[in-house]
Amino acid sequence: MTDRQRVASCVWRASPDLVVALDSRFGEPVDTYVNGSQVWIREDGPGGALVEWRLHPVAGYRRPPGLATEEVFAAVALALGTGARPPAPLEALWDGLEVFGVEPDDRIEPQPLAAAATEVLGLAPDAVGLVDHDTVGDAWERSRGGMSIVDALLGQLGG
Fold this sequence. Notes:
The chain has one domain (about 5-155). The protein is about 35% helix and about 25% strand. The protein has five helices and six strands. The longest helix has 12 residues, at about 110-120. It is globular, with a radius of gyration of 15 Å.
C-alpha cells in the first residue's frame, strides 16, 4: 500500500452528543443513502479544503419503520437533542463519523485535519491517521453491508 492510496481521516464513535453536534453545527445531510450513510460535503478542512463528513451505518443497517431514508437523521437528531425517544436506538443506526479530504490533490495531513475538524465540530476525534478506503470499501462490499466500516477504519488507525 502506498501513501497515494491512503488518505487522512478522523473518526468519532457514535454517541448522542455526536449526532446532536452534527445537527446543530451542520444541519441536514446533503446526501443520504438507503444503506444508512449520512453525508455532508463542506469546505471546512485545513485551509478551507473540501472535506466529506460521513456518518457510517452499523453492520446490517435497517431503516426505522415509518421513516423515509431522508428523514432518519433529522428524526433521530431531534429526539436526541430534546430528550425524546428516537425512532430507533442510536446503536442500531450508526457506528460513527468519519471526515476526510475530497480532492486527492489536496494531500491533507492527519493532524491539521484533526485540528480543523475538532474546531468545526466541537468534539475531538477518537482516532486520527491515514486510511485505505479501497480496502475498507472492498471488505464492506464482500460482506454485503454486514461489517462495521467504523471498526475497520479504527483498526487501520489503531483505535
